[in-house]
Amino acid sequence: MTEKNPIPENEQEHSTPQPAPKAESAPTVQRKPLQLTPLSILWGAGIVALLIGVIGLFQRFQEGLRPTALGSYVPWGLWVATYEYFVWLEIGSLVVFTLIVYVFKLHPILHKMAVTLYLTALVILAMALILIGLDLGHPFRFWHVLVWPQWSSLLAWMIWAHMIYMVVLLAKLLIEAYGKSQTLKAIGRALSYISIPLGLALVAIAGSVFSVMVGRPAWQGNGLPLYFLISSLVAGTGLLTFLFTWFYPNKQDPEYLSTVRWLGNLLLGLLVVGLVAASLGGMVLLYPGIPAQAEALRLALFGPFWWVYWIVHIGLGVVVPMALLLGRNPSSRQVGVAATLLITTFIAVPLNIVIPAQVVIGIIEAELVAAFHGPTLMAGYFPTLNEWLVTLFALAFGFLVFLFGFTVLRLRPHADISAEEASK
Predict the structure, then answer these.
(1) pLDDT band at 4 (very low <50, low <70, confident <90, very high)
(2) Is residue 424 within 8 Å of 185, Cβ to Cβ?
């Protein structure tokens, strides 16, 4: 048999080759234009601020405390005042939260904010420790106080209390975020109860560090620790109100507005208590007529930086928030704005406690100050660029850590969980 050819010979000769099929062209990839989201802007702003602050940090490690305005007459300045303010925010918010949720069992909806509040407090604690550590001449020797504590020193008590409080706070955050068993939740509740006396003791110790300074008459007395406690409750309530008002995801929750207004009333009441305490403290300083005390108060009220007290603190931090909160039924936005103003301007309080009491030496002992001259013998004080940059570094570092925890680790309030389930 012969093999059949499927195409005749004459057709094979005259057939034209068919062109090869064209390869399909690769689809054109259209690149989307880069869009700036609010989250990316926040990340970018935080990173830029951190890099700018690193300049001050590098200066601090290269030159020590020389780039600062600190000296023999004014050894504590912006960093110490900011540290005290951060301690007030951190401890006050946790004490108020624990009293409301665990002790008095009011407004269970607030328990949904536990993870975010603990994250915020831990971030604030980190910023506080950065600033107070850099204020020390040798910050990397802090462990000496832990290994060889001198228990007659209040600073040793303060450092130990802060370390213990940091461990408790970190444990609370981990339990709230990842603890599922009832045993862990019971441990978390026990730690919450322990954090109340521990936090109050830490604030009292911080105030006592100032009160025992023999060379600073404006700080002496037993009223300053109590004033620190009241200031901590005011600032902490402002922070708790700020977080709940702006960060709670379900604004349509029927309990949301009533809780916001309740927190606003609590903040208003504590503001009044704080004003009364400050007024009584001022009168106690003025009545004996001791020059160092009276002049320190006069500097805070009517000195070159009078606007820090009257405009920043009283105007923006007290009068405007009280006006927003005094309405019969303030909106959540009004309460949120009031809390925001309070926590951003309350830094004026520790600034007016820390700095005027030291600068007053240039007035009451002017002859002594004029008799000796040297690079560290400065009776005046205003923060240098280095001090502002280091403070910016601490703030940016804390902001980025909070942003990472809130967005990446999702340490945020979950409105889909019932209040009863969250508090179990």
Answers:
(1) very low
(2) yes
